[in-house]
Here is the input.
Amino acid sequence: MRNTFPGPNVTHCSSSFQMVSKASIVRPLALKCEWRGCTYTGTFSHHAQLRRHVDTQHIKPRSFVCSVSRCAKTFNRRDNLAVHMQQMHEDDKKPLHFTTGEGEMHASDG
Here is the structure.
């Protein structure tokens, strides 16, 4: 048996190999949010992006609350709250908090 690189549809060592052309490469996913009443019209290329959208827009929107007493701002993601704290309350050194669906307050992990 010659040791050569197998070409398209060549059986070699009892395995079938096929060359892949650029035209046969799978395109990214175009996942849409199908939550009833969702007004977002864009698509997501990864399941994780769609999951984050559902979590932050539908399941637990505005669950991150600014802990500064004179501020009533709420955010859908911890990183958005962190940016708010840095930009608006950099002198206030209170921990970040978020609420759960039961309305309890918990310190965030970070």
